[in-house]
Amino acid sequence: MAGQAELYSAVKAMAVSFEFKPGERINEVELARRLNVSRTPLREVLNQLMVEGFLTRSVNRGFIARLLDAKQIHSLYEYRAVLEAGIVRAACERASDEELVALRAFVERSRDVPEDSDATRLLELDEAFHLMLARHTRNDEFVRALESVNARIHFVRWIDMQQGRRSHTQGEHMRIVEALERRDIDVLPDMMRSHIGRRLDQITDVIRTGFSTIYMRDQAEPASVMPANTTTSGENS
Question: What pLDDT, on a 0 to 100 scale, did the predictor assign at position 97?
Fold first, then answer.
């Protein structure tokens, strides 16, 4: 592992994808050995991920992987809906006509990507659309906040993409672009909230699939965490 930034990226990717299974204690010794690093820089990374909401910590158990919890994911979606309603309003006021032309072209290219493409690629395209909007606000805090919440719901949205929501999502993206082109600032926030929002029961269904994916995947991979009692609880675009 070349350096702290690379170590952070590697461990965060594991946390985002729930390679650390929900509620399990992270075996620091085994993880350090697997990544070929010492425990001191690894612990610094784990502390940072705890601050960012990917891990928790117990006095007696050390670092614990976050739960895949429906109510928490629902709260993150609710936060994202409010955040992106503000983003799209600011983008409507500040984006140049040339930027909106490029945004439309991006959505049109994205629609040409086959529905049966890898879910990771489909999600990358979806996240890119929303980040383009955030950058058009000229406000870096919007971009950072969106990147943060996206990371925490990435796994659930990846499951969503596998379940075939993508065609619906792409159609809504184009309607948002059309409203931006009209500079229809009054309708855009509600469009975005509707685009993002999910009911708790929908989230619970996606999480149920997520648990199956995590534990079926683990049967074919070497474990990087030590088992512990897990709390399974029951997260849209």
Answer: 98
Calculate ∠ Cα 195-82-122, nearest 5°: 40
Higher pLDDT, 221 or 140: 140
- Structural domains of the chain, ranges and CATH numbers in brackets: 14-65 (1.10.10.10), 70-200 (1.20.120.530)
Q: What is the structure's pLDDT at 228?
A: 35
pLDDT of residue 216: 84
Q: Residue 204 has which token pair?
A: 């619970």
Q: What percent of the chain has pLDDT over 90?
A: 67
Q: Is the distance from CB of 55 to CB of 26 less than 8 angstroms?
A: yes
Dihedral class, residue 214 (left if φ above 0, else alpha if ψ from -120 to 50, else beta):
alpha
Give the pLDDT score at 197.
87
Handedness of CA 58, 60, 65, 71 (dihedral sign): negative
Closest CA to 140 of 87, 95, 182, 206: 87
Greatest distance between any 2 Cα atoms in the chain: 57
- What is the structure's pLDDT at 231? 33
Complete edge-to-edge strand list for the sheet that includes strand 55-58: 55-58, 62-65, 25-26, 225-226
- Choose between 113 and 182: higher pLDDT: 182
Q: Where are the alpha helices (DSSP H) in 17-118?
A: 28-35, 39-51, 70-94, 97-111
Q: How far is CA 152 from CA 29, 44, 45, 57, 68, in A?
A: 25, 19, 16, 17, 10
